[in-house]
């Protein structure tokens, strides 16, 4: 849609307005899923790809950090409880690094206590999604939140 509007402007010479909201809808966002449970990681990858996202996956925080530095994602879905490097440790490393501090991070966790939510947000998480969740709704949630980020 954005490319069509730009091409229309080139052909007609008309001033065609393309707003940030339109770009947010058309852009293929890249998502890094960091989740240690194979079946959850596979379900998330499958559903997000169906939803039009460019998806990469990692099974722990250490591998997730490697992938982040290979190619910066638009958003990270980060499990809290994982071996080797847990989600909070990865989140802390991301927020301390000038190159990654502004990447939105959504925590995916079974930890539903208000204290846990507060801890994650204080560490720099941008959102907190409690398991179980409907993976089919996740794409819309990500686009909605990233659209707000682009508008500001």
- The neighbouring-strand order within the major sheet is 2-1-3-4-5
CATH topology: Rossmann fold
Task: Please report the distance between the alpha carbons of the first and last residues.
Answer: 22 Å
Please mark out the parts with pLDDT under 50 across 5 or more consecutive residues, or reply none.
1-25
Which class in CATH terms? Alpha Beta
Please state the overall shape, judged from the principal axes of the Cα atoms. Answer: globular
Q: CATH H-level name... which superfamily? A: Response regulator
* Radius of gyration, taken over Cα atoms and rounded to an integer in Å: 17 Å
The description of the largest β-sheet is: 5 strands, parallel
Mean pLDDT, rounded to whole units?
80
Elements, N to C (H/E)? HHEHEHEHEHEH
Number of strands: 5
Architecture per CATH nomenclature, i.e. the level-2 architecture: 3-Layer(aba) Sandwich
Tally of individual domains: 1
Number of helices: 7
Structure description:
This protein is of the alpha/beta class. It has a single domain (25-139), classed as Rossmann fold. It is built from 7 helices and 5 strands. It has helices spanning 2-12, 20-26, 38-50, 61-70, 87-96, 114-123, 135-151, and strands at 30-34, 54-58, 75-79, 105-109, 127-130. It has a 5-stranded parallel beta sheet, with helices on both faces. Helix 2 runs antiparallel to helix 7 and helix 3 (38-50) packs across helix 7. The longest helix is centred in the last third of the chain and has 17 residues, at 135-151. It is globular, with a radius of gyration of 17 Å.
């Amino acid at each position: 849609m954005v490319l069509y509007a730009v091409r229309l402007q080139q052909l007609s010479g008309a001033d065609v307005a393309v707003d940030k909201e339109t770009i947010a809808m058309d852009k293929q966002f890249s998502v890094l899923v960091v989740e240690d449970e194979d079946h959850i990681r596979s379900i998330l990858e499958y559903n997000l790809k169906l939803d039009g996202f460019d998806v990469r996956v990692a099974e722990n925080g250490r591998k997730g950090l490697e992938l982040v530095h290979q190619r910066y994602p638009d958003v990270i879905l980060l499990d809290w409880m994982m071996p080797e490097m847990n989600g909070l440790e990865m989140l802390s490393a991301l927020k301390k690094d000038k190159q990654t501090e502004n990447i939105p991070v959504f925590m995916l966790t079974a930890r539903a206590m208000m204290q846990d939510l507060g801890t994650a947000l204080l560490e720099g998480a941008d959102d907190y999604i409690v398991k179980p969740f409907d993976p089919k709704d996740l794409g819309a949630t990500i686009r909605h939140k990233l659209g707000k980020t682009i508008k500001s």
